Amino acid sequence: MTTQTQESERRTRHAGARRGRHRGPIGDREAFARAFAALGQLAVQGVQVSARATDLATGEVLFSVDDHVVMPTASIGKVLLLVEVAARLQTGELSPLATLDRLPQDAAGDSGIWHHLHVPSLPVADLAALVGASSDNLATNVLLRRVGLEAVSARTEALGLTRTALLDLVRDHRGPDDAPQLSVGSANELTWLFSALARGEVVSPATSQRVISWLSLNSDFSLVSSAFGLDPHSHRHAEHGILLVNKTGTDAGVRSEVGVLRGPRAGVTYAVSTYFDDTSLPARLAVIDGMRTVGLDLLEYVF
């Protein structure tokens, strides 16, 4: 109970921190000018945009765009499941080698590789690694069946998150009685969550490190992180002084990414979410290009 109270207090302090200027000078130029222009252009085109970036060391807000707005975030909510799994591994409630079976009701296609494999059971730690590496939907559902959505929601509330949540298991089709989105979140809270994970402040240092370790396997660099020049399949060690831990969320009309980017000069935590009418390839490519432009400014800040 004390730990939950401390986590909520840290979250409250962060929410009340002084907001930085939306554009701050670096050298003889304005920081994040390209990012603001790109996101502004998307907004003009009818895209709903929410974004935030904070300095990892100081917590200063480097830029923000409607960062309080609750947005669909697709698979990003799986991070909350990983937090619950990591916490239970740390207390011994779960064993990393405990084998879980996949059942017919867990079936989900799209993201991940387990549904392409023959093996019917995997250890808890391996399932979490699959979620971190490929956002594996089947592994997500099996873990979620084991720990329970209510437990994930309780953990989320204990962290002090009120605008960020995992709402449901992964479904190939969502009916009228299902949650309309897999997860939602605000850029404000997501940047706090990833900053806290990076500092070892989510539940405990060991729990935070487990989650970071799983997320460091992520191979989706298609959005903001496409600007960083990293190898999506081998990036757990710094390349040219750049180190990244991130999670993406992709669904029809949803592109979202949150991450921690470290470089030779600075570190930054960022979250960018977009919600748009995904009826044409040009519309989708415009969103992806805008998110990559944010990444270019983030890279310049840390490098």
UniProtKB/TrEMBL annotation:
Bias (Basic residues): 11-24
InterPro entries noted in UniProt: Beta-lactam/transpept-like, Beta-lactam_cat, Beta-lactam_class-A
A GO molecular function held by the record: hydrolase activity
Domain Beta-lactamase class A catalytic: 53-274
Keywords in alphabetical order: Hydrolase
Region listing for Disordered, in residue ranges: 1-24
Name of this chain's protein: Serine hydrolase
Species, as recorded: Leifsonia williamsii
